[in-house]
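In response to reviewer comment 3 from the previous cycle, which asked for concrete evidence that the modeling workflow produces usable outputs, we include below a single protein chain processed end to end. The sequence was submitted unchanged, and the resulting structure tokens are shown without manual editing.
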Amino acid sequence: MITYSNLYDNNNMQKIAEKGCIKVFEHQKDLSVNASSAIGAYYASEMNVRKRQVLIELDGNAFTIQAGAMQWISGHVSMTSGIKGVGDFLGKALASKVTKEATAKPEYKGNGLVMLEPTYKHILLEDISQWGSMVLEDGLFLACDSSIKQNIVARTTFSSAAAGREGLFNLCLTGDGIAVLESPVPREELIEFDLRDDEIKIDGNMAIAWSNSLKFTVERSSKSLIGSAVSGEGLVNVYRGSGKVLMAPVG
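The workflow returned the following structure tokens.
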């Protein structure tokens, strides 16, 4: 049996989000400072630049975590590579070449706690079942229920990658369960579009996640070259069909 002190009852480490077996803690101040760094740490905290950590409370279930993200584990928790055979390894090795994802993401299973490394990024807890299949921008994935299937999807057209300043391939999450994502902006700033046989056009790669059911292309902002020139927008990213888009309005 393990008891915990200064974890759940730490006044400086406040719980800011919770979903399923996931808790997100935020360090209100950086207490490990000295005289030369105290001023910078103070203003960082005032501007919401704070360290955040994800705690996973396992109760017989399993979670897949980005390689290198684990800080500590406690209890009867086992770790595997997350690779199921030679074929699976070759497939994941190929996928890692076309995305920024690691070849192997370790899987933690059992009864106990898994704490992830602190990050200054903002943490999103997304129910994948509400998305159907969720496509992620590179670098967002942190962890997910191991029941969620991970696969690589290609852009609909080459132009959507080249003209849209995007990669050709993205990580796609499918199934039931919670995904933990690292966002460049807080959830309060993200705009969520819910499309029903419609479309949205976004100038630049501001969308951080979208439903795999949507068709993504890059098109001129106007049907005519003169119209595009007048608008000053040129090419825009277009998401068309039925599904969701999560957009960061600021970079």
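Residues 22 and 56 are 5 Å apart (CA to CA). We consider this sufficient to address the reviewer's concern, and the full set will be provided in the supplementary archive.
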